[in-house]
Amino acid sequence: RFFLEAPITAETVDIEGPEAHHLLHVMRAKIGDKVTLFDDSGAQFAAEIIAVGRKSATARILERQEVSRELPVSLTIAAALPKGDRQRWLVEKCVELGVTDLVPLETERSGSLKKEKSLDKLRGYVIDASKQCERNRLMRIGESASLPSFWEASPSALRLIADPVAQEAVSDLLPSVPTDVIIAVGPEGGFSPAEYEAALAAGWRGFRLGKRILRIETAALAAAAAVAAAYDQ
Ligand code: SAM
User: What does the pLDDT look like over 197-228, one tens digit per residue?
Assistant: First the structure.
């Protein structure tokens, strides 16, 4: 599976950049090989390689296939992103679980995401994970959001904040009719008391994921898995 940035509309397409490198130098594709292409339209395309160069290849589109692997709802994880490998792990597993949007959250006790380079890097992880798990839509990585204004976002969605001392479990809060969900997860030091209070005042509901203190990515993925398990068909 290979990702093309430009929408696939023509009968032949060129595969360039990192995807060409993967196709030509990792998979060692040859003329006549069959590949699957996707372009974030939701569809995937059966294609055949018809030309190879050193840095690019050309494929002929054989068939457009409508294959949706999306959840029936929009699922947003807003989290203070961990660093290094843990960040990559969070992004990769969010893609696998069907998260539609990942919003880096700036909180009192976390730093801010270092702009464009970081976002490009995160998007690269999204593409790699989408190729692996066969999603045809890319999880969006939103602009960093800061508190308290983020607490006012999307009031029509079910908005849940992960809180180690909350009373309710995430599964208790999910309506049986699938509903768009936003989950906020705090930084290593946790949300401050003022941040929790502002969230609850804005209509967010706290939930607990067992009795242990989880790291950011574990909490985000446990919550995303609960939503996916409840709503994915
Ligand atoms: N001492 C911090 C606290 O009490 O919030 C621990 C922070 S924890 C490493 C990072 C974030 O993961 C928390 O802010 C919370 O949003 C979420 N989290 C961790 N364990 C949790 C649990 N058992 N239930 C719900 N959320 C949890």
Answer: 999 999 999 999 999 999 999 999 999 999 99
Domain ranges of the chain: 2-66, 75-231
Query: What's the maximum distance between 2 C-alpha atoms anywhere in the chain?
Result: 61
The verdict on the CB of residue 164 being under 6 Å from ligand 1 is yes
CB contact at 8 A, 29 and 57: yes
Q: Is 183 in the pocket of ligand 1 (CB under 6 A)?
A: no
- What are the tokens at 14? 């060129």
Q: How many angstroms separate the first and last alpha carbons of the chain?
A: 24
Instruction: Return the CATH superfamily for domain 2-66.
Output: Hypothetical PUA domain-like; domain 1 (2.40.240.20)
Amino acid at 77: I
Nearest to residue 205, comparing CAs of 156, 167, 149, 148?
167
pTM for the complete prediction? 0.94
